[in-house]
Each structure stands twice: as structure tokens, then as C-alpha cells.
């Protein structure tokens, strides 16, 4: 997955920075690494999901956002649940806790939380815990337009 993410970054010729650091597998380590490296981007997270029909989805959102299964069902027409760690590894090669937002085979649908675009820069994982990529949300849009995947936009409903 790591190589697929980097290949897509190069293919789209976007500007980004890649940072190498100790493995990040929890929010506290992530916070410490961001502070130490002076990262300016907003932290994101991606969840790898599966429908009962066997379709796969990646929900790309901001760190701290909770998955609203009802809204996901409205958007996709399917009830989605998190994949197990084993299924995640088998299908994507991603380390659990390090799901990349893009770089997947065409049969994986990417769901992007529109809240991401309210920030100038975003931090993503390329599928492995030892690297973080920082890029502008404008560059992110270019990448998503180039992906072979169906990309759906998610907008959280006002409560």
C-alpha cells in the first residue's frame, strides 16, 4: 500500500512532504510526533469498511470524527461495518491503525468527509506507521480526481 500511495503522489505530480518517524499506532504518539516535527497539517484518519454484500469502502475523515452508520447507509445504500485487522491486512496491506485514504484497487469506494476541505493542509498515513505525509487539501483534490476509485462526498448532518 505504501508504494501505491507514493506512486499516486508522483503520478499526479502534487507537492507534499513525507516525514519518517517512530511507529505511530495511537493518538498520543501521533500528537507527540506532530509536535516534535512541527507538522502544520490537520490530523486525519481513514476507516476501512465492508458491506454485507462484500463491497469495500474507505471513510477518509478528520481525527476524532465518529462513524455515523446511519448516514453512511444513506450515502451508500448499504450497511457498513469496520473490517477486522486480518481482513484489512489481507485486502490492503495496511497496518491496522494506519489505513491510507487512497491508493486502492478500483473496486474500493472512497468516502471523503467534506470537513477535510475546511483546512489548508492535511496529514495522512500512507498505510504504514513509520511515515506521515503532509499535503494541501487542494493537492488532495487533484489526487482524488486521478484515482480509479468511485469517490463519494460525505457531509455530516447538522444535529
TrEMBL record:
Protein name: YbaK/EbsC family protein
Family (UniProt): Belongs to the PRORSD1 family.
InterPro entries on file: ProX/PRXD1, YbaK/aa-tRNA-synt-asso_dom_sf, YbaK/aa-tRNA-synth-assoc-dom
Domain of life where this protein originates: Bacteria
Pfam families registered for this protein in UniProt: tRNA_edit
Taxonomic lineage of the native organism: Bacteria, Bacillati, Bacillota, Bacilli, Bacillales
Domain YbaK/aminoacyl-tRNA synthetase-associated: 43-142
Any GO MF annotation of the entry: aminoacyl-tRNA deacylase activity
Amino acid at each position: 500500500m505504501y508504494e501505491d500511495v507514493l506512486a499516486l503522489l508522483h503520478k499526479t505530480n502534487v507537492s507534499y512532504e513525507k516525514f519518517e518517524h517512530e511507529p505511530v499506532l495511537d493518538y498520543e504518539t501521533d500528537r507527540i510526533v506532530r509536535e516534535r516535527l512541527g507538522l502544520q497539517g490537520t490530523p486525519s484518519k481513514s476507516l476501512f469498511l465492508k458491506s454485507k454484500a462484500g463491497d469495500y469502502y474507505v471513510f477518509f475523515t478528520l481525527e476524532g470524527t465518529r462513524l455515523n452508520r446511519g448516514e453512511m447507509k444513506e450515502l451508500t445504500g448499504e450497511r457498513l461495518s469496520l473490517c477486522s485487522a486480518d481482513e484489512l491486512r489481507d485486502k490492503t496491506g495496511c497496518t491496522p491503525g494506519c489505513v491510507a485514504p487512497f491508493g486502492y484497487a478500483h473496486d474500493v469506494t472512497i468516502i471523503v468527509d467534506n470537513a477535510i476541505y475546511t483546512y489548508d493542509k492535511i496529514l495522512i498515513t500512507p498505510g504504514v506507521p513509520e511515515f506521515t505525509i503532509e499535503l494541501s487539501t487542494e493537492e488532495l483534490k487533484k489526487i482524488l480526481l486521478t484515482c480509479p476509485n468511485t469517490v463519494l462526498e460525505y457531509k455530516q448532518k447538522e444535529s
